[in-house]
Amino acid sequence: MKLPQSYYLQDDVVVIARDLIGKKILSVMGGELTSGIITETEAYRGYDDKACHAHLGRFTERTKIMYEEGGVAYVYLCYGIHHLFNIITNSKDRADAVLIRAVEPLAGIEVMLERRSKDQLDKTLTSGPGNFTKAFGLDRSHYGADLTGDQVWIEEDKSLALKAEEISVSKRIGIDYAEEDKDLPWRFYLNSSIYVSKK
Hints:
- The chain is of the alpha+beta class.
- The protein has helices at residues 5-8, 13-19, 109-115, 129-135, and strands spanning 24-29, 32-44, 73-78, 82-89, 96-105, 152-155, 167-170, 187-190.
- The longest helix is centred in the N-terminal third of the chain and has 7 residues, at 13-19.
- It is globular and about 45 Å long.
- The two termini are 30 Å apart.
């Protein structure tokens, strides 16, 4: 079942980041369906998180989508190379986001391999936020995409329900600039999956 917009309007981005582990993300690009289980996320909170692009109300061409109502995609280019896919959450003007860092591939693996110029399936296909977006055909053209639409969306599969002990918690990766906020335990990952950027 596709997650409704109301799911993304919840007011605690950390709770959502954890809850997204085990849910299924799907994309349809050029008629090609790809899907996978979300295995790794990070939470970023707009109003008091030094790692968040919208910290201190920063409003730019890049971040303006973060101030929209939850349920849209925030995609940006990192280091001029990798597109990173984020989910905007909470009510309008809160600027909270969840970064999808890794998924475990399900459908469309041949398509993913072709997009990644890989010959065979291994954990690097969709582990790491840049690898995931490339495999799923996601880029800046999906900035602002409606997550209840038909390009990219998330589904809940009750058969994939996880126990609390299956989800590990750690500090986020690659945000040493965020001073004390770099140590917040806002990264979550499925500890039974090999499709995780770092354990």
